[in-house]
Amino acid sequence: MIPSATKFDPAQPDGTNRSMEIAISADGSPELGLTYEIPARCGIAVRVRKGQTLTVINPAGFQVCDFWIFAADDLNEYSSMEHLHTSLGSIFPKVGDGVVSNLRRPLMTITEDTSPGVHDTVIAACDHNRYRQLGVEAYHDNCADNLRQALIAIGLRAPAIPAPFNLWMNVPVQPDGSTSFEPPVSKPGDQMSFRAETDVIAVMSACPQDVTPVNGEGTSPERLKFRVTGD
Hints:
By secondary structure, this protein is mainly β. Helices cover 10% and strands 26% of the residues.
């Protein structure tokens, strides 16, 4: 736990896991067409050039991916779910929609979604304090730290912990505004593809949540896969 007298540093993890060791390259540049694995409970960052496509794959079907996009030339510009809501007039992005930044420009466009299209743009990334609120006393792997570590692993620092685009996460919103955490409705092998509208760094976390049914009922967090294609 960060001492109360210590100034908060958004780039500093509360704990570590394999995310610090599994970068796909020194600066996150991928081998085009090669399928990479994100181990369960871990996060990886990848550079995607303008015009290239990133495909995120859900082998188990029930595994949620916390997903962020940063402008490669300035990490202070990043995907913003609150700006996305304004841009779309909706909390449910779909194929053809641009994932916009805090400067209101599209960083990537959704070009494919083989799932029923149920994703979340409302819930913050799980973090150390969230698990403490859920009754977990010891350190628990979490998506906020996976983001931090994935960027550290390629020599960068997170400027903030933006709200993620939670791929395949099922958080129904009721007419009265209430929400709940439900198992994903995606199926094994479902995938989403994103075309980069500018050079970006995408970060993906195989969400470690195992206290609520975010990653399914009676299941454990699983791996994800991804690849980058194009010129």
